[in-house]
Each structure stands twice: as structure tokens, then as C-alpha cells.
Specification:
Structural class: mainly beta
Helix content: under 10%
Strand content: over 45%
Number of helices: 0
Shape: globular
Number of strands: 9
Distance between the termini: 45 Å
Largest sheet: 5 strands, mixed
């Protein structure tokens, strides 16, 4: 039986560090806005963190980034994941190393499991020196 997970949260941050002893995640530099020096931005580096629960079995997790003003998908990654126990909270994090933002504006980060959207968060990307 396969059951898609539900998200407790989805966060963008500079880095996710997993503590060796406790296995607890530390989110460093969480953000909802990002300044870039020019457009298109060139490859941006950051991490995406999600806390998920209620999942069971082998599920494909998709991360997509869409420019809200144009509805253009600018980034996508797919991850197979096994949820062993629906009662556990699972911490997933993705290292994004090549996400180019084509223009200033708002971008939607969406996490999906199969056909079901399970979490989303918005990022405002703006020219360096402008007010966020």
C-alpha cells in the first residue's frame, strides 16, 4: 500500500546541517526573499527542507519552481523516497545547486507526491540594492 505524505513545513535556507549525534536538522539562514546581482541570475545555491508525515511506501517526490508572473517552470527535480511508517516525521532536504532565476518577481516552490501537491512556499527574487 502506498500513501502520500502530508507536509508539516517547507523552508528555503542557505544550508541544512544534520547533527551527527541527535540527527536533528538545523536550518541556517532561512529566507523568503533573495537578492541577485543581475537577471538572468546565474546558478543560485541553497537548500530546501521539508518535514513530512503520514507517508507510507515508495513515493516519488517532485520539487518544482515556477515563475508566478509567467507561469514558467524554471527548475524541477524528482526523488524516489521510501516512507516506512506513517506515524513518523521524516526530514527531507534537497541541495539546489543550479537554479537560475530569469527575471525579478515571485517564484513558487512546490513539493508534490505523485499527483498530490503537499507543500508550497513563495520566494521573492529582486535586484541587489532594491528594497525586499
Amino acid at each position: 500500500m502506498v500513501q502520500p505524505p502530508k507536509a508539516i513545513g517547507l523552508f528555503l535556507c542557505d544550508q541544512v546541517i544534520i547533527d551527527r549525534d541527535t540527527q536533528k536538522p538545523c536550518l541556517i539562514g532561512c529566507f523568503a526573499g533573495r537578492a541577485v546581482s543581475e537577471f538572468p541570475s546565474g546558478p543560485q545555491r541553497f537548500d530546501v527542507f521539508a518535514a513530512l508525515t503520514d507517508g507510507l511506501g515508495d513515493v516519488t517526490i517532485d520539487l518544482t519552481v515556477t515563475h508566478l508572473e509567467t507561469d514558467q517552470e524554471i527548475y524541477a527535480r524528482r526523488f524516489p523516497f521510501r516512507f516506512p511508517d506513517p506515524l513518523k516525521v521524516v526530514h527531507l532536504y534537497f541541495q539546489v545547486r543550479a537554479c537560475d532565476f530569469p527575471a525579478q518577481g515571485n517564484y513558487l516552490f512546490t513539493l508534490s507526491a505523485g499527483e498530490a501537491e503537499i507543500a508550497a512556499c513563495r520566494l521573492r527574487v529582486y535586484q541587489q540594492g532594491d528594497q525586499p
